[in-house]
Please model this.
Amino acid sequence: MQCRSKRAGMSGILYCLPALICPSLVEKMMWIIQSILSVRADYFEIHHTHVAHGQDRIFATLMTIRMIFIAMIKLSPWVVLVLAWIPLSCFLMAERAKDKRVIKSWKFWHLMWHVTGAAISFIVTSLIHNGSPFL
Model:
């Protein structure tokens, strides 16, 4: 229960942001599913081993790969690398804190992973669907 953090867990809802601007119902649903899986795993089921953690990790990994792949095609590769570096760095810092069992640090970096990941996903989705000055 020490790992439960309202900020880190509930911030997963931010992954709904790209659903606000993408035109496809399928893509909207993908973002909504990601948000639900994130909140479920990182808030409701954080205190014990649960299938939700695997579902969240698999879906988040696939969504990350998908975003990078689409962005590499639609945007300049350097833009993708710079944008992907930010949330992925937060993720790595959270993993490091988890490995060292520094809960306060894990909560912060996990929150930052969600905030930066959702923000970058929103920006990239907007650039892909609404045009980009980086094309």
